Amino acid sequence: MKLNVKLLAAAALVAASTSSFAVVEPGGDLGTLTQYPVQFGGYRSGAERVPQPGDRLFSDDFTFALSAAGSVIGSVSNFFGDTSFSSVTVTSAGGQSWTKSLTDGSDLTFNFANLAAGSYTLTVDGVFPLGFHAYSGSAYATAPVPEPASMALALAGLGIVAVLSRRRRPNA
Q1: Tens-of-pLDDT digits for all 172 residues of the chain?
Q2: d(CA 104, CA 84)
Q3: Residue 46 CB contacts under 8 Å (≥ 6 apart), including other chains
Q4: Sign of torsion, CA 89 143 108 60?
């Protein structure tokens, strides 16, 4: 039995379009990230208008926004074929960027902590081998976690307020 790649790709697209979530394609907008993951992905069809023999480098951009300060957490993985990932980068509207190297194939996760509210671009870089290959990924936002030093300072402040309020209480 011979595998028809075009038929398989068409079936995957139909399945994705009828599911309860949509996969954002390169150049698309992930919207405002929340604690619920947003799916994104890209592919190389192998039937390109201009044939490119061999491996092809790719750099796919996805825009998103954060409504409040927080962390952006996510991952990428092979959906079909054998895509190699090199890095994931988040760039702010002001041009500041953070990069996570993905050259270690066993860790394809990313976590960009302490990002301010605003607009960002998520860039996935890698290599598609010749033929049909696809990848998928997901990203979501979390609220920032206070650092231990900040918590210690807050507790010390509460302790001082408690001591001062106890000293000012009139004796009965």
Answers
A1: 455 656 555 555 555 544 445 789 999 999 999 999 999 999 887 655 555 566 788 899 999 999 999 999 999 998 888 888 999 999 999 999 999 999 877 889 999 998 999 999 999 999 888 778 889 999 999 986 666 777 788 888 888 888 877 777 666 5
A2: 10
A3: 5, 130, 131, 132, 133
A4: negative
CB proximity list for 171: less than 8 A, separation 6 or greater: none
Closest CA to 57 of 39, 24, 28, 83: 83
Nearest C-alpha neighbor of 136 from the set 8, 3, 16: 16
State the pairing for strand pair 133-142/70-80: antiparallel
pTM for the predicted model, two decimal places: 0.69
DSSP result, 18-71 = HSSS-EEPTT-EEEE--SS-EEEEEEE-S--SS---S-EEEEEEEEEEESSSEE
Residue type, 63: T
